[in-house]
Write a structure and sequence with these properties.
Blueprint (H helix, E strand, L loop, with lengths): L3 H10 L4 E5 L5 E4 L2 H6 L3 H6 L3 H5 L5 H9 L8 E8 L5 E12 L5 E10 L1 H23 L3 E6 L4 E4 L1 H7 L3 H4 L4 H4 L3 H15 L5 E8 L5 E12 L5 E10 L7 H23 L4 H10 L4 E5 L5 E4 L1 H7 L3 H4 L4 H4 L3 H13 L3 E9 L8 E12 L5 E10 L1 H30 L3 E6 L4 E5 L1 H4 L14 H4 L2 H17 L3 E7 L9 E11 L5 E10 L1 H53 L5 H32 L5 E3 L1 H11 L1 H7 L2 E3 L7 E3 L1 H18 L5 E8 L4 E7 L7 H5 L9 H4 L7 H11 L4 E5 L5 E8 L1 H6 L1
Parallel strand pairs: 22-24
Antiparallel strand pairs: 1-2, 1-5, 3-4, 4-5, 6-7, 6-10, 8-9, 9-10, 11-12, 11-15, 13-14, 14-15, 16-17, 16-20, 18-19, 19-20, 21-23, 24-25, 25-27, 26-27
Helix pairs in contact: 6-12, 21-22, 22-28, 23-25, 25-28
Length: 779
């Protein structure tokens, strides 16, 4: 077994605190190894240098220790000091120093037996706890609800700022007084005492309403949520009550519901507060997280110490990104920074309504608007220890208000515009209402309608404005619009009562107007002055009749002239051919050229005459539509144009089969002759023609011919298929200008369409459509 001294040394060697024995001469008799953990210096260094302990003391604490060491020992008195030391690494730490004198069995003083404990963490925790309690106190003081804390006898312990504002009493005036003695009506005292007794028996939380009488005599109906805080023995220690002034709440059910919801919320918060009163910081966090406001607690340098979730969400930063950061590093704003500094320096709170703010790191949010309050948190000496920052986002309300104002302005502008438009409109506008129709609204144009006995105005009956006949007709039309629920349109002629004003015509619409239930309650009268239109229509109808008669005369004349020229031209052509056959072998070159010119000219004149006859026939005649064999039609066309095809060396490509369509053979053949002859004249050198057909979605067949000519410009395409004289460059190619006009006339007569697709240097495609015979059979 080790000796007692060895056992004691062994225990001392493993103690957590820094244990030592200092001899009367100031040298160390013993030092525990913990000295190195606490100071960073080893036992050997302290043994070599007994003054090391005094030197590592903080300069402000060293005189206290020196004075302590110089004191004479008195019995076994224990002495305690809290000191700061500077460790080997330069860190300042707190130690709790305890020592007492040591004596030998004969009473000889053997020195000081001491113990140094590192209390840095404990002191920091105490400072943090004080700061948290100050913050909790500030929250309770600035809460919107009344918060009062009573002791087990019903005496007031805490009385927040809202209570002071409602009652007019300060906390010092009511502290230690029973609540029913100072604030209650006589008839409310016993019920309140009964509620207090229920809380003491453990019936909590509960809710109760009573009236508080303020200093000025005003009465406030308060809704309370009460709970109790019990001590470890289960006895009542404190009652915590949170109340809401519901005096005005009773005036409206909607406000009542809102306040009850708020009351319920506050009741839940109080229940949590009472259950965890010993853990004030946790309670404060719960309050912050359950409020609709954005809350933050900042130190005097505006660094974030605490924030609730609502603040994080609105700021766009996480709690980790905010805590410890400076507010104005994250949200720079020179104006707000000046306000924060003023509150910190003066200790006076500030509030703002709808204050604008720009998030520089979130420009997409644009301008935001906030109701906010900045409240200083003060210590017992009145020094500001922090700031409670409370914000409520009212951006949407401000924007909605701005939007409402904008819409109102737009509505006013539109209304003014419509009123101006109504009065200046060239259309007569009137609104009538009632079984005895009376005007509600008329514009200037309606007032200018001829035939009125009196100027129409609001409240006047139709019978008062017009003569009897016109009034009766107008009333009948209004009644018809009422009964039928449909617009009634008429054309009316009105004679002016002034002899120098001409007869007027008006198109008048009687339009039913409906109420919210869909019933006709008014009739809108719209009167359009169509006098000029009627005159123009009359003149146009007269001109059309005259033009139609003239066209018929011209068609008859053209047909007669062409028919009368046909026989002489046939004789002339016959003699020209006979003369060429008999005289050509012996004729001179000059005579031969004259005879060829005579033959060509006679043939051209015959073609022109036939074209004129076909044009007149297409304009006047009616033909029977029948199925056509387009292959046989094209065979006849190629036979008629064989000399021309041979002369130009043209290549004509035909399909193996053709669709069957409805038409009139001679006319369709004439159309093909014109298309094919033109393609040869204006095609390439040599011409290459490709013919074909395809079915269209509308039940027609499109026939087309492609050439390899130079193509046509848009300007040239625009004048095709019109009755025009041929251009000079066309006359030399044998064109007389009637071909495409005839094609358009006969195809339209057969119910089809014509057209061309072309571009310069890409050839042309001329086409026409006819109705499919297959579709006609299906019908």
């Amino acid at each position: 077994m080790p000796s007692s001294e060895e056992r004691l040394r062994l225990v001392a060697e493993f103690t957590y605190d820094w244990e030592y024995w200092l001899a009367p001469d100031g040298t160390y008799l013993y030092l525990s190894p913990s000295c190195e953990r606490v100071t960073g210096y080893s036992r050997a260094e302290f043994f070599r240098d007994p003054d090391l302990f005094l030197r590592i003391l903080h300069p402000e604490d060293r005189p206290r220790m020196e004075e302590h060491l110089q004191e004479q020992p008195r019995g076994h008195d224990q002495r305690e000091l809290d000191l700061r030391i500077i460790t080997r690494t330069g860190e300042v730490r707190w130690i709790g120093h305890v020592c007492q004198p040591v004596y030998a069995s004969d009473g000889t003083w053997l020195g000081w037996r001491g113990s140094n404990r590192d209390i840095t963490n404990r002191l920091q925790a105490q400072q943090e706890l004080r700061r948290e309690r100050d913050f909790a106190s500030a929250i309770l003081s600035t809460a919107g609800a009344l918060i009062v804390v009573l002791d087990s006898e019903g005496r007031i312990v805490r009385f927040n700022q809202t209570c002071e504002q409602v009652t007019g009493y300060t906390v010092d005036e009511v502290r230690d007084q029973r609540v029913w003695d100072v604030l209650l009506l006589e008839e409310d005292k016993e019920p309140v005492k009964a509620v207090f007794a229920d809380l003491a028996r453990g019936y909590f939380p509960n809710r109760f309403e009573n009236v508080w009488v303020a200093r000025d005599g005003s009465r406030h109906l308060l809704a309370w949520s009460n709970t109790a805080l019990l001590n470890q023995q289960g006895d009542l220690e404190h009652v915590i009550a949170i109340g809401i002034d519901v005096t005005e709440q009773r005036q409206a059910e909607e406000e009542r519901e809102q306040l009850l919801a708020r009351f319920e919320h506050e009741r839940e918060v109080v229940a949590g507060l009472a259950a965890r009163l010993a853990l004030e910081w946790d309670t404060l966090q719960t309050i912050m997280e359950h409020t609709h406001a954005n809350l933050a607690y900042l130190d005097p340098q505006f660094n974030f110490l605490a924030v609730n979730s609502a603040y994080c969400q609105q700021s766009g930063h996480s709690r980790e990104e905010l805590l410890g950061r400076n507010h104005f590093e994250l949200f720079p704003d020179a104006e707000n920074q000046v306000i924060f500094q003023r509150v910190r320096d003066t200790g006076e709170e500030v509030s703002f309504r709808a204050k604008p703010f720009h998030y520089l790191d979130q420009p997409e949010r644009g301008v935001t608007y906030w109701d906010w309050t900045l409240v200083p948190v003060k210590d017992a000496d009145g020094q500001v220890q922090g700031l409670v920052f409370s914000l409520l986002d009212v951006t949407e309300q401000i924007r909605q208000a701005g939007e409402r104002e904008r819409l109102l302005q737009e509505n006013r502008a539109q209304r003014e515009f419509l009123e101006h438009l109504l009065q200046s409109a060239p259309v007569g506008v009137a609104v009538v209402k009632g079984e005895d129709p009376r005007f509600e609204l008329v514009n200037a144009t309606y007032q200018s309608i001829p035939g009125m006995r009196e100027m129409p105005g609001a409240g006047r009956a139709i019978a008062e404005v017009f003569d009897d006949d016109t009034a009766r007709k107008t009333e009948q039309l209004v009644e018809q619009a009422f009964q039928s629920n449909e617009t009634v349109s008429v054309r009316e002629g009105r004679n002016s009562t002034e002899p120098d004003r001409p007869h007027k015509f008006w198109d008048v619409d009687y339009v039913p107007m409906h109420d919210d239930a869909g019933e006709v309650e008014r009739v809108l009268i719209l009167a359009h002055d169509v006098t000029e239109q009627v005159r123009a229509e009359t003149a146009l109808r007269r001109q059309n009749e005259e033009l139609q008669a003239l066209t018929q005369e011209l068609d008859a004349y053209a047909h007669t002239v062409a028919h009368d020229l046909k026989q002489p031209l046939a004789i002339l052509t016959g003699y020209a051919d006979l003369l060429y056959e008999e005289e050509a072998p012996s004729a001179s070159e000059y005579s031969l050229k004259l005879m060829e010119t005579l033959q060509t000219t006679a043939a051209k004149m015959t073609e022109i005459v036939e074209s004129l006859l076909l044009l007149a026939e297409a304009r006047q005649g009616e033909v029977v539509m029948e199925p056509l064999d387009m292959g046989r039609v094209l065979e006849s066309v190629c036979q008629r144009l064989a000399p021309m095809i041979e002369e130009h060396g043209a290549e004509v490509v035909l399909p193996d089969s053709w669709p069957t369509v409805l038409g009139y053979g001679p006319w369709v053949e004439s159309a093909w002759v014109n298309y094919v002859s033109n393609a040869i004249r204006y095609g390439g050198s040599p011409p290459r023609l490709e013919l074909g057909a395809c079915h269209e979605p509308d039940g027609t067949v499109c026939f087309w011919i492609d050439d390899n000519g130079p193509g046509l410009t848009p300007e040239e395409q625009a004048v095709l298929f019109t009755s025009r004289l041929p251009a000079k460059e066309d006359r030399g190619k044998g064109s007389h200008g009637l071909g495409l006009t005839i094609v358009r006339r006969v195809v339209q007569k057969l119910g089809g369409k014509v057209g061309v697709k072309s571009a310069p240097n890409q050839g042309s495609r001329f086409w026409f459509t006819l109705r499919s015979a297959d579709l006609d059979q299906d019908r």
